[in-house]
Amino acid sequence: MPQNNNSAVEETQAGMTLAAFSRFLFQDLSWSKVRALIAGRFISINGETCCDPARRVQKGEMVMLAKKPAAKITDSHSVKIRFIDAHIVVVEKPVGMNSVRHPAERDWKLARKKLSPTLDDTVSLLIQGKTRLRVVHRLDKETSGLLVFARTVAAERGLGSQFHNHTVVRKYFALVPGRMGSRRIESLLVRDRGDGRRGSTSNPAEGKKAVTHIDFAEAFPRHTLLQCQLETGKTHQIRIHLAELGHPVCGDKVYRTKKDGTVIPGVEDFPRLALHARELGFQHPISGEFLHWTMEPPEDFQNLLRQLRESKPKHGN
Prior knowledge:
Elements: E1 6-8, H1 18-25, H2 31-39, E2 43-45, E3 48-49, E4 62-65, E5 80-84, E6 88-93, H3 110-113, H4 119-127, E7 134-135, E8 144-150, H5 153-164, E9 169-177, E10 183-190, E11 199-201, E12 208-219, E13 223-230, H6 237-244, E14 275-283, E15 290-294, H7 299-310
Parallel strand pairs: 8-14
Antiparallel strand pairs: 1-4, 2-3, 2-4, 5-6, 6-8, 7-8, 9-13, 9-14, 10-11, 10-12, 12-13, 14-15
């Protein structure tokens, strides 16, 4: 493997294909080796594996070469539909799949889309939908859990109103290093906290209000399992709020680093983001009936919790 295994894309390199940039970055590798590494899931962009050699890199993105290949891309068999009618579809999103496809990628040919399947594409194929699903909220690629799509304009408006009014029930499991108790977190979030990453600000003219309710769930020797309920739903809200308290979600590769560049320890104990959207509830946008679902964490998350429980000290009678 090359000595320099990661690099940020500079302005003069923006627009290069992933294959070309990787060849530039890893100059001791041949073109065929670079393509093999991309196809083999060794190369990521901003922490997300990319198998598309023709994907254009953008300024500031971090391209990394891993020592081991990432887990295989999730296929449609891992997507479970929990509810469907003419207006909405509720699904269980697996780990490793983006919620929606970027607008610039919608005209890609099917073979290229299969290199990086998205939840909206996969669900559309499963339900044989003739119209594109309408997005009302998203989950991060490495976050598993419950997600709803609208299938009609009326449903999109009805759900959108509930999300805007903060009446949708959204609860998550988050595993963090250290000990942490229940609390309410409120801050003003901005797209750039000063180092290119999202974060909080003290300037009310710049930030948008974000509120997260934290409830203690279970304690382990070096970790805490939390239940996080979103009142608002800003991008990366839970991850930012927990990290700013010194307890970033285990497996978080972005917010484990403070603004001053120091790394918060204990986050590397899980290979991906230990965040799971376990509960979803809302009024049906057409009928008005209240609907509610829960979902257990995926197997890798449950195995981690099992291992942590086994590490607890055994007390005698």
